[in-house]
Amino acid sequence: MDKIYDVVRERWVPDFPEERIRQSLLKKMIEQLDYPKNMIAVEKNLHSFNKTSFNAKQRRLDIVCFAKDDKGALKPIFIIECKAFKLSTDAINQVIGYNYFIKARFLAIANSEQIKTFWYDNNKYVFIDFLHKYQDIIKMEKEIGCLSK
Q: CATH assignment of 3-148, given 3.30.70.100, 3.90.1570.30, 3.90.1150.200, 3.40.190.10?
């Protein structure tokens, strides 16, 4: 089986279509959008966030980005689900379902052709077709007050 290098986990992983999308996105996040590699987790088990959640042991988050709150504790602020196929409402619902346990402010779904970033604001989801830089996400989090609680 072919392998692809995971820049965050720093190891070779099986080269599946979804993994290629994940690695391409991670490379862009780190090299172009200034996401610190040490603030990103890849294939993070949902069970590690909520040990009582039903069926969480089998669920993994493709990409989770963290920030430090004013006390230095890590807080998940952004989760991204990568898909090897066309983005759909089902993919959006999947990441929203994961976020029920994670409580990140920003969510995204991505495939090889597009990305949809979104967040909940004024009782509705707001969608954009790009990723913000890491510092822009941090700034928005601080303005909302999530990192200072």
A: 3.90.1570.30
The sign one gets for the Cα dihedral 86, 58, 26, 14 is negative
Cβ atoms of 95 and 69 closer than 8 Å: no
What gap in Å lies between CA 67 and CA 73, rounded to an integer? 8
At 57-91, the pLDDT tens digits run 577 899 999 999 888 889 999 999 999 999 999 99
**Residue 129 scores a pLDDT above 50:** yes
Q: What is the pLDDT of residues 83-111, one digit of tens each?
A: 999 999 999 999 999 998 898 999 999 99
Place of tokens 């909520």: 50
